[in-house]
Every structure is written in C-alpha cells, then in structure tokens.
C-alpha cells in the first residue's frame, strides 16, 4: 500500500514538473525572423579554393595586386589608385551585414573622395545578374569589381564578409577589418592617412 502511494506521489511530481516547464517556455509574443547583427560576418557559401597556404595581408605589408573587371566591363587595378587611400572592400549581395554597412561607406567616400580617398568594392563570387540590381538599389557610386572566381579574395585570404583592407597612398596595408566597418571608424583611419601625406 505504501509503495503504491509513493509511486503516485512520484507520478504527480513528474506531471507537475512537466507542466511547470511547459509554462516557463511559453512565449506569447509572435515569432519574428532574426535580424542580422551589424557585428556579424557572413560565411562564404562555398569555400575559397586553396591550392596553397595564403595568409591575410597584415598591417605594414604590401597589398596584393588586384586586376578585375567592373560591371561596365572595364579592367581596374589597385595600382591605378596609387597616390590615393583605397579601401578594398570584399562583399556580396546575400550578406546582411554588407547591406547594413554599404550606406555608411558611401557617406564617408562621398565626403572624402575629393581629398584622395576611394573604395574598390570587390564582389565575391557573383555575376552581373545578381550584382547590377543590388548596386543600383544601394546607389553604390564607387567602382564595383567582379571577383567571379574568388581569385582576389583568395589572395587576400578572405574567410568571411564583409572584410575591409585599407591601403595607403604607397600601396601598403594600414588596416584589416573583418565585420561591419562603421563610417566613424573609416573616416578616422582615412583622415589620419591623408594628414600623414600632407
């Protein structure tokens, strides 16, 4: 008799615990799709080809060469911008943090371009059909380069996007930034380099 009473108490305790857990996890608020954090980094959908070990360019090293086509079919190289401060910005249309960041970069570029600053927006792994409408909708006025085979991203050892590499007037890397680059931080870095050159 006592044993059956003990089992009854145990069963009642288990049921009470289950009800308590269910009530505790109940959330009356409707579920919403998560919003990408500005600090997030998008992982590339396919791994970059790595026939050899490539290390990221570090501050003080010479920036790897870039020669890519623009959306208009013109070839642009990083060397064309020697004498200017250049932000080499790796991005893609599917990257939420990139969408958040591009207006910030555009504002800095608009204000500092006459002083000797430019952005080379290197799209990683996409073609014209995806990139063109995105560029038009985001009003990207700076050069957009197509790294279709991700060769340049590989030479910069890009593992996630956005990744930004700031190159000085002599072609030397002065900053490598993974994740969203704010207008304030970009302006601070660019203005420092422009002042050093005066």
Radius of gyration: 25 Å
Provide the helix percentage. 25-40%
Tell how many strands the DSSP assignment holds.
9
* Tally of separate helices: 5
Low-confidence stretches: 19-39
Strand order in space, largest sheet: 3-2-6-5-4-8-9
Find the structural class using helix and strand composition: alpha+beta
Mean pLDDT: 81
Helix and strand run: HEEEEHEHEHEEEH
Strand percentage: 15-25%
| Distance between the first and last residues' Cα | 95 Å
Largest sheet: 7 strands, mixed
Label the overall shape.
Answer: globular
Notes on the structure:
- The chain has 198 residues and is α+β, with helices and mostly antiparallel strands.
- The chain is built from 5 helices and 9 strands.
- It has helices at 2-25, 96-112, 128-138, 151-155, 183-196; strands spanning 42-43, 67-70, 75-77, 85-91, 117-124, 144-147, 160-161, 163-167, 173-178.
- A 7-stranded mixed beta sheet has the order 3-2-6-5-4-8-9. It has a two-stranded antiparallel ribbon with strand order 1-7.
- β4 (85-91), α2 and β5 form a beta-alpha-beta unit.
- It is globular.
- The termini are far apart.
Summarize the structure.
The protein has five helices and nine strands. The chain is an alpha+beta fold and 198 residues long. A seven-stranded mixed β-sheet has the order 3-2-6-5-4-8-9.
List the helices and strands and how they pair.
Elements: H1 2-25, E1 42-43, E2 67-70, E3 75-77, E4 85-91, H2 96-112, E5 117-124, H3 128-138, E6 144-147, H4 151-155, E7 160-161, E8 163-167, E9 173-178, H5 183-196
Parallel strand pairs: 4-5, 5-6
Antiparallel strand pairs: 1-7, 2-3, 2-6, 4-8, 8-9
Helix pairs in contact: 2-5
């Amino acid at each position: 008799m006592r044993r059956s009473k003990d089992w009854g108490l145990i069963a009642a305790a288990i049921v009470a615990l289950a009800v308590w857990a269910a009530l505790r996890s109940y959330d009356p608020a409707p579920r919403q799709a998560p919003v990408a954090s500005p600090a997030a980094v998008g992982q590339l959908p396919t791994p970059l080809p790595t026939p050899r070990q490539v290390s990221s360019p570090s501050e003080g090293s010479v920036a790897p060469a870039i020669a890519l086509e623009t959306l208009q079919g013109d070839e642009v190289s990083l060397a064309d911008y020697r004498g200017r401060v250049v932000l080499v910005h790796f991005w893609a249309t599917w990257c939420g943090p990139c969408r958040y960041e591009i207006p910030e970069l555009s504002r800095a570029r608009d204000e500092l371009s006459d002083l000797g600053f430019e952005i080379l927006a290197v799209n990683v792994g996409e073609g014209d059909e995806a990139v063109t409408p995105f560029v038009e909708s985001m009003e990207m006025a700076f050069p957009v380069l197509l790294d279709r085979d991700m060769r340049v991203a590989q030479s910069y050892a890009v593992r996630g996007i956005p990744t930004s590499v700031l190159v000085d007037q002599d072609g030397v890397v002065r900053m490598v930034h993974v994740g969203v680059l704010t207008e304030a931080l970009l302006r601070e870095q660019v203005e420092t380099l422009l002042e050093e050159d005066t």
